[in-house]
Write a sequence for this structure.
């Protein structure tokens, strides 16, 4: 019994020291988290390669870069077309499958109609001084946006990596994308 | 307090549309010295809201003034640090 009292006193002082250490530990990790939070991140998965669908990921990526975000755009399936230096300049607009198109689907399905609707869209982009896909991609690269090309779909769809824009990251897969998304403040699938 | 300030640089993005006014403003402000003021001229009506949002979400910049002058939208942004 008599030994209990001093040991209990020891325990208490130990506890206090431990608490102090714990508080310091927690303060450190809070400071780390706050430092981490200062750097905002956005992660976009780009899966489409039509002219209209190539715009949203690039507009958001360049704008987020202007906000000082760390931005990663992971391109997979048809999204790889956006990274292809030549083909990104000639992305097509589909004249079918979109009920908001000025032509009915049966007309849109006539051979050559995709070319017509694409030309119309390109003219509007030009008349409106809207940035081109190439311009947006190069601007984003200059601003430090990381463009990644999914390795599995590069091989599946038989892309030549040398034909991508300079600065595109290859040799990445779903786990890289997932890790980016887990870390990001904003995650989008386009 | 007087609203007067000296303009350090002017960025003319007349005719350009989203997202270029914001993107080019960011690139231009990077070259403005601390305490300097960037004047940005745009014809994009969306720039009034976009530049305001960008300035609020970006460290080291302060939106001093926005002026709507017919089809021209003028923005004055100070580089704070």
């Amino acid at each position: 019994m008599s030994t209990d009292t001093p040991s209990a006193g020891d325990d208490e002082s130990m506890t206090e020291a431990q608490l102090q250490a714990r508080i310091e530990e927690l303060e450190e990790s809070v400071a780390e988290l706050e430092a981490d939070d200062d750097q905002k991140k956005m992660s976009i998965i780009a899966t489409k390669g039509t002219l209209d669908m190539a715009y949203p990921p690039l507009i958001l990526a360049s704008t987020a870069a202007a906000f000082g975000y760390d931005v990663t755009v992971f391109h997979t399936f048809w999204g790889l077309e956006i990274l292809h230096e030549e083909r990104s300049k000639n992305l097509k607009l589909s004249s079918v499958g979109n009920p908001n198109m000025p032509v009915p689907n049966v007309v849109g399905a006539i051979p050559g109609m995709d070319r017509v609707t694409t030309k119309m869209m390109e003219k509007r982009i030009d008349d409106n001084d809207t940035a081109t896909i190439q311009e947006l991609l190069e601007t984003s690269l200059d601003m430090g946006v990381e463009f990644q090309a999914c390795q599995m779909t590069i091989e599946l769809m038989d892309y030549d990596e040398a034909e991508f824009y300079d600065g595109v990251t290859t040799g990445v897969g779903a786990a890289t994308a997932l890790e980016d998304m887990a870390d990001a403040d904003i995650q989008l699938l386009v | 307090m007087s609203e007067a300030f000296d303009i350090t640089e002017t960025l003319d993005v007349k005719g350009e549309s989203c997202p270029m006014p914001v993107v080019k403003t960011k690139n231009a402000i990077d070259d403005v010295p601390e305490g300097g003021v960037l004047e940005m001229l745009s014809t994009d009506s969306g720039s009034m809201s976009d530049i305001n949002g960008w300035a609020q979400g970006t460290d080291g910049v302060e939106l001093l003034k926005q002026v709507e002058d017919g089809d021209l939208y003028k923005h004055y942004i100070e580089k704070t640090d």
